[in-house]
Amino acid sequence: MLSAMKLMLTFFLSGIIACYGDNPNYDSIHKLLLVSFDGFRADYLKNYRLPHLQEFIEDGVLVEYVTNAFITKTFPNHYSIVTGLYEESHGIVSNEMYDKDTKKKFSQFNDKDPFWWNEATPIWITNQQQENRRSAAAMWPGTDVKINNTLSHFFMKYNYSVTFEERMESITMWLNNSNPPVTFATLYWEEPDASGHKYGPGNKENMRKVLEQVDNHIGSLIYKLKRLGLWENINVIITSDHGMTQCSPEKLIILDNCIGRGNYTLVDQTPVAAILPRNNKTYVYNLLKNCSTFMKVYLKEEIPNRFHYHHNKRIQPIILVADEGWTIVQNGSLTKLGDHGYDNALPSMHPFLAAHGPAFRKGYKKKTINNVDIYPMMCHILGLKPQPNNGTFSNTKCLLVDQWCINLPESIGIVIGVLLVLTTLTCLIIIMRNRISSPRPFSRLQLQEDDDPLIG
Ligand SMILES: [Zn+2]
């Protein structure tokens, strides 16, 4: 019986240890570098050769796809990653916004007014509110804006013509030299998004070229961190804001064919267009509703709950959501062969996440998390108390060495295994008992009368 219990215990422990990891000496105040390669669609990892990134993953963790926030555009999702909030809660609801009360406008080229960013507190600020810590940023959206009256201690003014090498040099220098220490840093790069828009993700040859460059950037970042002696002690997260899908000149939804421009203001463009009606909202809605079978038209109050895209006054009274690959224009032709912004349930809109460092397990793969889950995980790594957020820390526990982690398939496997062992043992015990408790009674061998005795 003792050996049976021993066996069961081994069974249980092996499952738990497999999930628990192998680094008990993890210090919770390690540095963290968060890197985004804009528009890095999750399946690029499977379809292209990316040796540096693959090596990074083999020694760290991979989340195969990340469910990002709707709408799947750049500014909103970068802010979701660093705040753990859906777009309706952090207030950056698109790349193009309009505020009716103040008449203010926001765009990628006019994004410096703190007004737009102040509805949330990003992690680089929370990190600096802890004693003796600094943050550094190389062009992550919002890091050159004074949010809630605070700037990242080190930052670069956004300028797309600054090379990856220059951004990398600055961020690694800040991570290495400053006193008090930089514990949180961010690095942003515009590719493969720019090429995805220009050529479309279906253009394998051009995407191969740009992804090779991105992979080389990852290689040089790792090399630089190793050379500075930072590699073993720093946690690095490589992720992205959204994916990319192929567009086509045959898939155009032309608003001018359905409604006169005088009836509305087009606040945000394709593939999720934000419509501000000039006078009669119902009239505008009815005209748009029947415009195309390849576009969903929602009044603000009808937007599906799963989008978490409703409770903010910057979300306009009507939004149009194009089907995958379709482009909404007022008139004219297609300008981008690839685009994003579509429904966040579409696999083509999902980015990936990979991470490496003392906080992370080695060689672990997980199917999915939400991008709002990244924030509580980063706060945990940095030992920060998170601001209120929409993320779920337990979704990321299996990625971390210092967390207990039993995921569902493993738990079911363990339970079935234990039941099988118990059943086998019970059967064995019953058989053994029957043998011991009912011995065959001794009986003398009787010779029949007609048998010939062997010895006469
Ligand atoms: Zn883009």
TrEMBL record:
Q: Which cofactor does it need?
A: Zn(2+)
Name listed for the protein in its UniProt record: bis(5'-adenosyl)-triphosphatase
InterPro entries under this entry?
A: Alkaline_phosphatase_core_sf, Phosphodiest/P_Trfase
Reactions catalysed, as given in the entry: P(1),P(3)-bis(5'-adenosyl) triphosphate + H2O = AMP + ADP + 2 H(+)
SUPFAM superfamilies referenced in this protein's UniProt entry, alphabetically: Alkaline phosphatase-like
Query: What UniProt keywords apply to this chain's record, in alphabetical order?
Result: Blood coagulation, Cell membrane, Disulfide bond, Glycoprotein, Hemostasis, Hydrolase, Membrane, Metal-binding, Signal, Transmembrane, Transmembrane helix, Zinc
Q: How does it sit in the membrane?
A: Single-pass type I membrane protein
